[in-house]
Design brief:
Blueprint (H helix, E strand, L loop, with lengths): L12 E6 L6 H16 L6 E6 L5 H13 L7 E6 L16 E6 L4 E5 L9 H5 L3 E6 L9 H4 L1 H19 L1 H9 L3 H5 L5 E4 L13 E4 L5 E6 H7 L5 E6 L2 E10 L8 E10 L7 E8 L18 E3 L1 H12 L3 H7 L6 H10 L10 H9 L2 H6 L1
């Protein structure tokens, strides 16, 4: 436990992820409120940092939080707060927003998260495996337009104080045993605003092959485990990828720099985490060495889903569509379509699954029922 000093005291590290830009007044107010809340409670963190999320983007909020939480080497005392709240519920005179939930991992990392949009989506697998448990809370969700300044810092400081006090009472060894047993509630017992555990139905689903994040270098990070892609298409396989309204040829690679400069590749990226007894799983990333991959997919954004397949499979689909009669052409609007739209139609018809699994498409082509499936 890296954040426990020689005297057995906790030296917590606090991290806020919020969709306020670093140069915005709101960023400074939230940071100041958290420092103030900690000082009032006699909590002295080793570090307080405020990171940024694109405005109202809950997909990036969830991905960034999971990437940092699951890869934390600090463990007990590393406390995160993620606040990205589009407030898409019906507007209320009380400025009511989405609920805040509390999660604890088997390593002892704790997080307070506004449960909005897809923020919790990356945690589903870990919750199912018992690696992390989320709880409802009674942290106020109404009464202020600026909850992240007026309510959330107090909740984070209270949590930090609670973690420190539980360490004093239970001791380092007992904390470790409780974490190993996934007995998170025993550690959190007594936290005033702690509620019941969330069930799995509370976690939204983001389909495989969706864009998680576009980084500063224009690399497009997906939520697909790269090994799963490689099981279908070994490194070196050329694919055609539709993303948004654009199609590009890409090559399956091992890692980001496994392809030469100027070659668009879908590779094992730099992001990923481990769940359960599995080793660390890295996510696929569309990468263009020497250039920005995102510029070749105009308008790409988080949440967009790729459709990828060998060029030969797409050509067989196009050849079949060209032989279709007028009724089929009219219904599928083949007079006013494009390769990206056709590939997206294949995905909607479940002929391509998880972004790149074309097993059902190939079966349909063999059976000769492609048009029937698309017309259904």
């Amino acid at each position: 436990m890296e954040l426990i000093d020689a005297e057995g005291r906790l030296t917590p590290v606090l991290k806020i992820l919020t969709d306020y830009p670093r140069d915005d007044l709101a960023h400074d107010e939230v940071h100041q409120s958290l420092v103030t809340a900690c000082v009032k409670r006699g909590v002295w963190p080793a570090n307080i940092d405020v990171g940024s999320i694109p405005s109202l983007d809950t997909i990036v909020a969830g991905f960034k939080t999971a990437q940092l939480v699951f890869n934390s080497q600090l463990g007990y005392g590393h406390i995160f707060h993620t606040n990205c709240a589009p407030r898409k519920n019906i507007v209320s005179v009380q400025s009511k927003g989405e609920k805040i939930v509390l999660g604890m991992t088997r390593t002892g990392v704790v997080l307070l998260v506004v449960n909005s949009g897809y923020t919790l989506a990356p945690f589903y697998e870990a919750v199912h495996a018992g690696e992390i448990t989320f709880y409802q809370t009674s942290v106020p969700d109404a009464g202020s337009q600026f909850r992240s300044r007026d309510y959330f810092p107090d909740a984070m400081a209270d949590l930090t104080l609670h973690m420190s006090e539980r360490l004093k009472i239970l001791g380092k060894d007992q904390i470790r045993k409780l974490l190993q047993a996934h007995a998170f509630h025993e550690i959190l017992k007594g936290l005033e605003y702690l509620g019941d555990p969330l069930n799995l139905s509370s976690f939204p689903h983001l389909p495989d092959g969706c864009v998680y994040y576009i980084d500063n270098f224009g690399n497009i990070k997906l939520n697909s485990k790269h090994q799963k892609l490689v099981n279908f298409y070994p490194p070196g396989t050329p694919l055609v990828v539709a993303l948004g309204n654009t199609v590009n040829d890409v090559v399956v690679g091992d890692t980001g720099f496994s392809m030469g400069e100027g070659v668009m590749a879908i590779t094992s990226g730099s992001s990923g985490w481990s769940v359960g007894r599995e080793g660390k799983s890295m996510f696929s990333e569309i990468f263009l060495r020497g250039d920005r991959a995102e510029t070749h997919f105009p308008g790409v954004k988080s949440g967009d889903q790729i459709v990828a397949m060998p060029r030969a499979d797409l050509q067989r689909v196009l050849d079949t569509l060209r032989t279709a009669n007028r009724d089929v052409s009219d219904k599928l609007d083949l007079y006013n379509t494009s390769e990206p739209r056709i590939m997206q139609a294949l995905a909607r018809a479940k002929l391509v699954r998880d972004g790149f699994d074309t097993t059902e498409l190939q079966n349909s082509l063999k059976r000769g029922d492609l048009l029937k499936r698309l017309m259904a």
